[in-house]
Write a structure and sequence with these properties.
By secondary structure, the chain is α/β, with parallel strands linked by helices. It has 2 domains: 6-200, Rossmann fold, CATH 3.40.50; 203-331, Irregular (Cytochrome-c3 Hydrogenase, Chain A, domain 2), CATH 4.10.480. Helix content is 24%, strand content 11%. It has 10 helices and 11 strands. It has helices spanning 18-23, 31-37, 54-65, 99-107, 117-122, 171-182, 198-201, 212-216, 296-308, 312-318, and strands at residues 6-12, 40-44, 72-76, 79-80, 112-116, 135-136, 140-141, 144-145, 162-164, 282-283, 286-287. Strand 10 (282-283) and strand 11 (286-287) form a beta hairpin. It starts with 5 loop residues before the first strand and ends in a 13-residue tail after the last helix. The mean pLDDT is 92.
């Protein structure tokens, strides 16, 4: 006898809908077929489900009463607590209830609670300074524990909120999280210190970057159209950013850095408060944000040695918008 399907309920709070758009790309047969193949029943989703109005309210009421089991609660978007902690900036259409209230009520019923995207995880874009809506994540307010559910929140299976962060997250990160939960294969030890699944959070966006040769020789681009490393001048945070973004294809291929756009570390709390994503902050000419786990003295020594050994081919290609000199055997 096959096990009963796992019920997944997806709500959108202060959201642009980008996380939904990302996950719909997942799987050759489509997202809905993927869910079904892993025994996941999509109870309701505001963008793709047929139920509306009273039908939706009935679904929510049955979940809140315990009549319908809630295996996975997924929330996309920031929780807007304003004005003055009432949550009334974000109410469910056709009701007087706020998403703040509904999220708290349903999270208390859920076996697992998943925050999809950096908005739901940490506050994200709506929480950017000056944050007039008092936006926060489900379990975090920026990098500080707490958020809408409180720092002590644990789901029915004893886990904190699972933060599949990113703006938007890779579709694989979302679907693989749901699959692991459906199979009972995601435990507290599988999450990092900010509740992000380690299967993607144990990597850096730098890993697998197509510009790594330029990084190794500190051959830097100075404008976005050039092929060189974007860390030194153009604000790229890939050596600090959590995620396997350059190790798996996005929407068939590519990544931010592959397309010539600096990594903005969108999986991290407070990334939205960066004032200029295309400029690397420096002190005395030294980038403020150095690679994770690398002492400043080591980086300075390595950078000096690397630049002194930069092949002419690498230097020329770094400052061009295409390959201008091909690799060739040295003399």
């Amino acid at each position: 006898m096959s096990p009963a399907p796992k019920n997944l309920l997806w709500l959108q709070a202060g959201s642009c809908g980008g996380c939904t758009m990302a996950v719909l790309e997942h799987g050759a047969a489509g997202w809905f077929a993927e869910l079904k193949s892993f025994g996941i029943n999509l109870l309701w989703h505001p963008s793709v489900s047929e139920e509306t109005g009273d039908e939706v309210l009935d679904i929510l009421a049955r979940v809140e009463s315990g009549e319908t089991p809630l295996d996975i609660l997924c929330i996309e978007g920031s929780i807007l607590r304003g004005p003055n902690g009432t949550g009334k900036f974000n109410r469910m259409s056709g009701t007087s209830r706020t998403l703040l209230d509904i999220s708290r009520s349903l999270a208390a019923r859920a076996d697992y609670c998943v925050a999809v995207g950096s908005c739901a995880a940490f506050g994200g874009i709506p929480a950017g300074d000056p944050d007039p809506t008092d936006a926060c994540g489900l379990h975090y307010d920026g990098a500080e524990p707490g958020g809408a559910l409180g720092r002590d929140y644990r789901s029915g299976r004893g886990l904190p909120v699972i933060n599949v962060s990113g703006c938007a997250p890779h579709p694989g990160w979302m679907m693989e999280t749901f699959q692991a939960l459906a199979l009972g294969d995601l435990a507290a030890d599988d999450l990092d210190a900010l509740g992000r699944p380690k299967f993607f959070a144990a990597h850096l966006a730098h890993h697998g970057c197509s510009r790594n040769e330029f990084y190794e020789f500190k051959a830097s681009a100075r404008v976005l159209s050039e092929r060189g490393c974007m860390m030194e001048h153009l604000g790229c945070k890939a050596t600090q950013a959590i995620g396997d973004c350059n190790q798996r294809a996005w929407n068939g291929g590519g990544s931010c850095t592959h397309a010539g756009f600096a990594c903005i570390s969108c999986t991290a709390p407070n990334f939205e408060n960066t004032r200029n994503f295309h400029v690397t902050p420096k002190v005395a000419g030294i980038p403020v944000g150095l690679p994770l786990d690398m002492p400043k003295a080591w980086f300075m020594t390595l950078a000096a040695l690397s630049k002194s050994a930069t092949p002419e081919r690498v230097r020329k290609n770094a400052e061009a918008d295409r390959i201008v000199e091909n690799p060739r055997r040295g003399k």
